[in-house]
Each structure stands twice: as structure tokens, then as C-alpha cells.
Amino acid sequence: MTLWMIGNMAAHSVPSTLKRLLFAVKCSPLQSRCCVVQREAQYSTISSPNEKTFDKILIANRGEIACRVIKTCKKMGIQTVAVHSDVDSSAVHVKMADEAVCVGSAPTSKSYLNMDAIMDAIRVTGAQAVHPGYGFLSENKEFAKRLAAEGVAFIGPDTHAIQAMGDKIESKLIAKAAKVNTIPGFDGVVKTAEEAVKIAQQIGYPVMIKASAGGGGKGMRIAWNDEETREGFRFSSQEAASSFGDDRLLIEKYIDNPRHIEIQVLADKHGNALWLNERECSIQRRNQKVVEEAPSTFLDPVTRRAMGEQAVQLAKAVHYSSAGTVEFLVDSKKNFYFLEMNTRLQVEHPITECITGLDLVEQMIRVAKGYQLQHTQEDIPINGWAIECRVYAEDPYKSFGLPSIGRLSQYQEPLNLDKVRVDSGIQEGSDISIYYDPMISKLITYGATRAEALGRMEDALDNYVIRGVTHNIPLLREIITHPRFVSGHISTNFLPEVYPDGFKGHQLEADAKRELLASAAVLYIAAELRSAKFVHFRVASTPVECSHWELCVELGEERQDVQISKSGTVEIDGAKVEVWGALNLASPLLPLTVNGTHRMLQVAEGQEICVIEAMKMQNSLTAVKQAKVKSVHCKPGETVGEGDLLVELE
Predict the structure, then answer these.
(1) Which cofactor does it need (predicted)?
(2) Which residues contact 251 (CB under 8 A, 6 or more apart)?
(3) CA–centroid distance for 458 within its chain
(4) Coil, helix or strand for 107?
(5) Buried-state track 474-490, b at ≥16 Cβ within 10 A, e below 16
(6) Number of neighbouring beta carbons within 10 Å of residue 506
(7) Which of 33, 107, 315, 592 has the greatest count of CB atoms below 10 A from its CB?
(8) What is d(CA 250, CA 233) in angstroms, rounded to the nearest whole number?
(9) Are 185 and 251 spatial neighbours (Cβ–Cβ below 8 Å)?
(10) How high is the mean pLDDT of the chain?
(11) What are the angstrom distances between the C-alpha of 455 and each of 212, 236, 422, 444?
């Protein structure tokens, strides 16, 4: 068995007689503005009953973003249609919607990217508009064209803006013309490796080679010399062709050790546009965001306004109408450079909603119907601080997160805590499959100050119960409590710099080890006493009173003698640890007070059994209960199919 500890603790081994635990620091209550009231986000949906939008909207997406859109539609009195693959027939977004239509089998190409099937669903249900969410068809100009041809509103920008901003070469030229700061580089298409070397030498190393039609970190290479440029050109063009069907590349100056800061914009069809402040998105792994916050600790009011005004200039240059995000790289001297524009609702939009009070989904729906914006730039505040952690079904100890698949045998969101928002599209019993993104939820906390928001995030992570799959909460917990992050001294290189050998968990110091040993020992004795009472009740005998116990506990490679008194005092190597708590051993969350500090323990399963490679991604299968492996029915390298028996547990 394994004893897990997050926060100030790391993973260590203990005897099989002890239950598996997840030990975490629990923060004391904090007071601030409210992001959640009775489990509802405090952004305002302010539509007038007399302001008619749409009767029915189809959401061409799945998971948490589909659920997020449905929530606002319900507040606005709009009926909703969910589309789903066959394996998603019992998904949460399907249950939430007023209607649901199956659009194909599990692979995304046959369902959520199946334009013909989705268009059929629109016709059958009579949906007047489509919200695409993010990913899938959200930035597909052909989909937007087909909707327009049938008189169906696309809740997003028009095809011109999608086309212009979707091409990195064209978007950079437009940005320069709009007087937006751009990264020095070659504005055309690089055709050969030798041409790439010549351009790189002219720009000056290091350079970034990236796909013109790329995104999500694919088709990107950093080159520090001529040889790396030749190699990067070859690999990037191959990856771009396979991922996007477009092998065009561009080269620009690589901004070393930058921050990734983006500006949320909102524009209507009448020429009005606003910037809704920034989001700090520098904590990334494999060029994908992990932790975001709003506002940024780095920007001053002057830089913030300059970035916001340039973002609006770009939006107006392409006649943008809807919510969108302009991404910038910012160097150590607060010079900022245009990176790209995402012509859709961003994953991390909730933190902007928390600090502005605006419902961005509602604003997108209003704009799509043709209404003018309800606000001016002076109306847009920065109220408090919000932080978002992306909770994934991933093993954080492998390349900062390789996908883990399985069924959520136990799932409990920390919505009992104040000022916590969870955007999710799963529930207990849901499957995390190989076909889709392994995101479990977006966990958002809010406070009057950054310190309060961070404190609540620690508490929320500690109280989040996820069983059946491996998850990245230990990594998230480590990030938000790391001194560099707390101080705001971050960049896009944060993870590789802080964990150059990969994430290994937090190393226990002497006091933390003693607290871990003491807590585990007390919990073990509590479980033994409960079992003894049950046995004595069944045989009608009198239990033997005991006021002192002696145990030997293994922690890593070490064995430690532990003495426990009935009062809860634990003695370890002459040092005393006071442990107290009213334990409900049937609950997945076990609060304790250890030497006067609140702690939260979790009883957990989840050891990795095997790894399956599918679609060039490694997926971890974990145990959903405490058990022994009875037999293994597969061998390394074998091809397995759906429904095949791989491992038996007893």
C-alpha cells in the first residue's frame, strides 16, 4: 500500500496493514468577495425578458464547456440541444440539455467533427443557433459557412475573422498593419531547410520554427544554431502536415524566458469592442496551460492598458464580433509581442468572469443575435483575484502528465467550500476514455486578494475527491504553494526550471515526516478499534480496554517505531505529536488537527496496472479498488481491442 501526501508531503510506502491515504494541508477559513453563491458562479446574467435572443441553441461540443453553455442558456430561458457520440450517451451534458442527438461513434472524426451529422441534428431539432464551445469545430470557417448558408446563427465571429486569425502568417501581417507589437521574424512562408537557416541567421538565434496553421504546441521547435534549424524545419513541417494538413512554416525570434499573458476581448457587430483585462497563463507543460490567474502579478496599469488597446485594435481590424482572446508574449522588461488570436471562448474564461462579473457566454449569445454591447470600457472592473487549475486525469510523475483512463469510482467536488467554482462535465461513474481530452474539471477559486484566492485553492484541492483514475492534483498543489509561484516570479519555463528531472513530489522534511507517521498511526488505530467493536458486538463479548499502542510504520525505505496514547499523543523518536479529530471512517475526507494545524486526509485507491498506447498517446489504467492482481491476460506490445480482459483483480 502507499501513503500519499500532497502540499508539504511526498509519496512514500507504508505497510499493507495501513489503508491508502491522501494527506493534505487544510487551510483555515478566509474571508473575501464571493465567486460562488449556493454553488452558482457570481457572474451576472442580466438579459432583459424583453430582449429576445434565440428559442433554441445547439451546443456542438461535449464535457464541461457544453455544460457551461447550457447553464447560461437555462438562465436566459433558451432551450438547448446536446450532440453526443455513442459512448457519451449518458454524459452529463446530455442529461442537462432539453434534447439530445447522437451524431456518430466515439472517434471525434465520426461524431464531434462530423459536420454532416451535426447539420442534420440542427435541422431535425429546429435549432436557431449553434454555440461551438472550444476545440472541435469552434474555429472551423467551413462549419460557420454551412451554418450561415442555412440561416443558422454561429455564436462566434464571422468566417473572415476566423480565416484571418487562424492563419499565423496572415494574422501577423494584419497585426503589424493594425500597429500591434509583433515578434521580429520572417513574414512569408519558409520553403526549404536551407532557406530556414539563412532566415534564422538574419533574425539572430534563438528562433522559433512553427506551423502557420498550428496550435496547442504542435509543429513548434526552438533552434539555437544552424543544425537545430535544419532539424526543426524537418520535424515541424512533418508534424504540421500530419496534424493540420498544412506544412507551411514561419520563423520568428524566440523570446527567451517569457510570460504568456492574454487579453480577453468582446466585440459586437456595430463596431464596439472592449478589453476585459488580462489572464496570466505562463504555467504550462508541453505548451499547454495548467494554472491560470487574473489579473497578472506582473502588469502595471500602463502596460495593461497598452496591451488591451492593441488587442482591441486587432479585433477591429478584422471586424471581430464575439468573445475572443489575443495572446501575447511578455519579456522581463514588459515588452509585449502578439502571439496569436483565438477566435472562440477560451478554456480559462471563468477567471475573467470572476473579476469582471460578466457572463461571457451570455454576451456571445447577445452579440450573435445582433445586440450592441451593454458596457463601455469604463464599466469593466478588476474586482479581486481569481485562479484556475485544470484538473486532468493524468499521471503528473510522467512528463508532467500522461493521460490516465478509467471510470470515476468515487467523485466529490469541493463545492461545500466558500468561493469555489467547479466547471465540469463528469460525475461519479463517468468514464475517462482514450477518445477525448482527459480534463476532469476546471477548479476556480476567488478572493479579494491573490493570497486569499491561493489559500482557497489549496483548500479546494485538498478537499477534491477523485478515485478510479490517476490525476494531477499533487502537481497542481505543488505549483500553487511553490515559493516562486507565490512570489509571482514565473515564466513559461517554470515547470522545467523548477523540476528539471520531472515532477517527483515534495520531499518531506523531518517535521512533516513525523506528522505523516503520527496521522497514519492514529487512523490505523481508529480503524482497528472500530473493527474490534463490531466483532465484540457480534459475539456478545466485552472488549479489552487499551490505553497505549506500539506500532512499526514503514515510510519509504525507513521503519519507524511509534507509540500512541489513548489521548491522541503520538511519540516518535522522543518527539510528541498531538493528533485529534472526530473521524468518520466511512467518509472519503477525514479532517484532523495535528499539533494545532488543520489537516485533511483522504483514503484512496489508484495504483497503475498497465499502460495502453492509443492514437500516439500513452494512457494509464489504474485500479479502482484495493485489491491484489489475480492474473494478467496481455503482454507488452500486444494489440488489444475494446472489451478485452487485460488484468484481473481479486
Answers:
(1) biotin
(2) 185, 186, 190, 196, 199, 200, 203, 207, 208, 209
(3) 15
(4) coil
(5) bbbbbbbbbeebeeeeb
(6) 19
(7) 315
(8) 9
(9) yes
(10) 87
(11) 41, 41, 16, 12
Distance CA 380, CA 15 (A): 56
Residues 62, 279, 344, 514: which is the catalytic one? Answer: 344
Question: 342: closest CA among 262, 444, 273?
Answer: 262
**Distance separating alpha carbons of residues 92 and 424, to the nearest angstrom:** 9
pLDDT exceeds cutoff 60 at 175: yes
What's the mean pLDDT in 235-239?
86
Helix axes 159-166, 141-149, angle to 10 degrees: 170
- Smallest CA-to-CA distance from 139 within 405, 332, 345, 379 is with 345
Question: With contact defined as beta carbons under 8 Å apart, do 4 and 506 qualify?
Answer: no
146 included as an active-site residue = no
Q: What span, in angstroms and rounded, lies between the C-alpha atoms of 474 and 198?
A: 45
- 285-315 exposure pattern, b = at least 16 Cβ within 10 A, e = fewer: beeebbbbbbbbebbeeebbeebbebbbbbb
Assigned C-alpha cell, 452: 486569499
Looking at the chain, the whole-number percentage of residues with pLDDT higher than 90 is 65
HEC sequence for 356-402 = HCECHHHHHHHHHHCCCCCCCHHHCCCCCEEEEEEEECEECCCCCCE
Please, what's the b/e burial string for 76-88 (b: 16 or more CB within 10 A of its CB; e: otherwise)? bebbbbbbbbebb
Cell of 48: 432583459
Name the residue with cell 430582449.
51
Sorting pLDDT into bands at 50, 70 and 90, what band is 28?
Answer: very low
| All cell numbers assigned to 479 | 505549483
CA distances from 371 to 153, 229, 361, 362 (A): 13, 49, 14, 11
341 pLDDT more than 90? yes
Q: Which helix (H) or strand (E) holds 322?
A: strand 322-330
Distance CA 60, CA 93 (A): 11
What tens digit of pLDDT does each residue of 98-137 get? 999 999 999 999 999 999 999 999 999 999 999 999 999 9
What are residue 623's phi and psi, to 5 degrees? -75, 135
Model confidence pLDDT, tens digit, residues 473-497: 999 999 999 999 999 999 999 999 9
In one-letter notation, the amino acid at residue 273 is A
